Amino acid sequence: MPIKVLVPEVISKIAAGEVIERPASVVKELVENSLDAGASQINVEAQGGGIELVKVTDNGAGIPASEVELAFCRYATSKISNLADLESIFSLGFRGEALPSIAAVAEVEVFTKASPDIVGTYMYLRKGDIIRKESRGRAQGTTVTVRRLFHYFPVRLKFLKSVNRESSHIANILSQYALAFPEVRFSLLLDKRLSLQTTGNGDLRDVVNQIYGLEVAQGMLEVKARDTFGKVNGLVSPPSLTRSNRNYISFFVNRRWVYSPLLMRATEEAYHGLLMDGKHPMAIINISLPPEEIDVNVHPTKAQVKFRHEQAVFAIAEEAVKRALTRAPIAKSRVMPFPATSWSHQGSWMIKEKEPISIAPLPAPDLPVLRVMGQIANTYIVAEGPEGLYLIDQHAAHERILYERILAQWLKKEVEVQGLLQPITIELSPSEEQNLEANEENLTQFGFTIEPFGGRNYLIRTVPVVVAKANIPEVVNILLGNLASKDNPTPWEEKIAQSLACHSAIKGGQQLGNEEMRELIRQLEQAKQPRTCPHGRPTMIHLSLHQLEKEFGRVS
Ligand code: ADP
Ligand code: MG
User: Fold this and answer.
1) Which of the two ends of the chain, N or C, has the fewest CB atoms closer than 10 A to its terminal CB?
2) What is the C-alpha to C-alpha distance for residues 50 and 65, in angstroms, rounded to an integer?
3) Ordered DSSP codes for 274-304
4) How far does residue 33's CA lie from ligand 1's centre (Å)?
């Protein structure tokens, strides 16, 4: 389609606003243009955090000589032409705003050639005015160079962060596009140093290797799902591979990098109960939907989208990630074969990170029937199953059992409550008092009756049966602390169930009789997620028969 200025009727429907906020926005818009032009190779260069220079070169379709000037007019685009096109957008750009917006705040050079033209076009603009335009030879493709961004706008310049921060924004933008388009060969030079280079061979894992390193690339699990509504693909980390923030989670919708709280929730839901508090997965997820299912025209930077059927998107994303996670290995721990001496003297297995023998992943999510063999270090239960040897952490396993039981009782409103013959008095700090007030109803639902008793003193009259034998003031203190913690997004009922389970579970170091161990294992076999404790730590380590045979040199 030739470049044309949109008609006023379409312009009025376009989400208006600032497109160029910082140097990384220039990179984003130029790279999007290169991708829309079908480029298979995109080279980006930036200097001085992108303020001195941003240069993007592609081997895409190029701009015909007759349209180069028009490309810099406001609302001039070759990607849509009428209102109906706005309803189903296939390209990354569609508003015809980027080139004029960039040209208005910088010095811009464009050098381009489209295929039927014999010679290319070079044009130089300053603050939006064309200073020079001439024909020059070059191969098909486009190079846009942007210099002195915001030079004539000192106030805008002042708002930028340090050169390093701006450079890191640029690197991040380019990494995201490289993840979204593994078949495109990207390179990024930051202050003349090669910061990123992808092969363009179409393999997402190769791009992940370039950006996050080999260990991550090898560990990631493939996400692949499709139904009549849409398609999801990408890579997600197994529960053993986490980060302490959400910066390693990228979502793309029809390969547009988007910020989406909905997809974030769907992903976190899939990992629910599998990760320790404060830990986040790594994920690269692309959702492909018919373009009419998405509205991109909600924000000037096109970083947000609206889904027509949010529930359906949530469901397909969550399900796809969940399915990928069933292929995760059970525990990433690495086990050393136990030398006889350490077995007899220490009574425990040596667990080390180095000199690894990796543990075979278990194929099925449920536990097979296990036969208890004994206990070591009064902490781990040794059991045998059809698949080999299992070492079970008695505390973590019991925590998992109690956690599921407590939540199930709460759901059915059948929490078992114990009245205390002798009510217990506790004194709360002012902030604990606040937490108690805010959570009184929640605690009541779980069987606590806590009444004011003058000053900051309170009387505990009833407690849930599971913690009746525990140190009750301590349990209440910890519960109030957990409920108040803001940076833990776990729902309140799960926080309560976690705390209760943790306090009432058998501890490590406690000797168990054979019958007790058998009962514990039997209950664990019935748990919904027997392999992790409620905090996401593994409840067990598995050594397959094959692994044992390898260790003993019976097979190679
Ligand atoms: P939009 O991308 O929304 O159409 P832009 O202002 O970014 O608006 O670009 C205007 C037009 O210039 C595009 O529609 C496209 O036709 C052309 N164009 C811009 N950059 C390139 C490029 N790298 N290769 C080919 N054509 C380009
Ligand atoms: Mg554009």
Assistant:
1) C
2) 28
3) TS-TT-B--EEEEEE--GGGEE-TTSTT---
4) 5
Q: Which ligand lies nearest to the CA atom of residue 5 in the structure?
A: 1
Q: Which helix (H) or strand (E) holds 196?
A: strand 193-197
Of 153 and 118, more confident: 118
Distance 118 CA to ligand 2 centre (A): 25
211 C-alpha to ligand 1 centroid (Å):
28
Q: Tell me the Ramachandran region of residue 446: left when phi exceeds 0, alpha when psi lies from -120 to 50, beta otherwise.
A: alpha
pLDDT score recorded for residue 334: 36
Retrieve residue 38's tokens: 């079908």
Q: What per-residue confidence (pLDDT) applies to 153?
A: 86
CB of 91 within 6 A of ligand 1: the answer is no
> Which atom of ligand 1 is nearest to 98's Cα?
6
Q: How would you list the strands of the sheet with 449-452, edge to edge?
A: 417-427, 457-464, 449-452
- Which uninterrupted H or E stretch holds 483? helix 472-484
Token readout for 427 is 């004194």
Higher-scoring residue by pLDDT: 17, 83: 83
**DSSP annotation string for 108-170:** EEEEEE-TT-SSEEEEEEETTEEEEEEEE---SEEEEEEESTTTT-HHHHHTS--HHHHHHHH
Q: What is the pLDDT of residues 95-126, one digit of tens each?
A: 899 999 999 999 999 999 999 999 999 999 99
Q: What is the pLDDT of residue 354?
A: 31
Asked if residue 499 lies in contact with residue 475, where contact means CB atoms within 8 angstroms, the answer is yes
Pocket flag, ligand 1, residue 58 (CB < 6 Å): yes
Residue that has been written with the tokens 């998992």 in this structure: 400
> What single DSSP character describes residue 6?
P
* Number of C-beta neighbours around residue 105 at 10 A: 20
Protein residue with least CA distance to atom 12, ligand 1: 71
Asked if residue 391 has pLDDT above 60, the reply is yes
Structure tokens at 175: 């990494």
What is the rounded CA–CA span in Å between residue 289 and residue 317?
12
Q: Which atom of ligand 1 is nearest the CA belonging to 95?
A: 3
Contact 242, 211 (CB under 8 A): no
- Ligand 2 midpoint to CA 31 (Å): 8
DSSP 392-458: EEHHHHHHHHHHHHHHHHHHTT---EEEEEEEEEEE--HHHHHHHHHHHHHHHHTT-EEEE-STTEE
0.85 exceeded by pTM: no
Probe target for ligand 1 pocket from 99, 110, 117, with the most ligand atoms within 8 Å of CB: 99
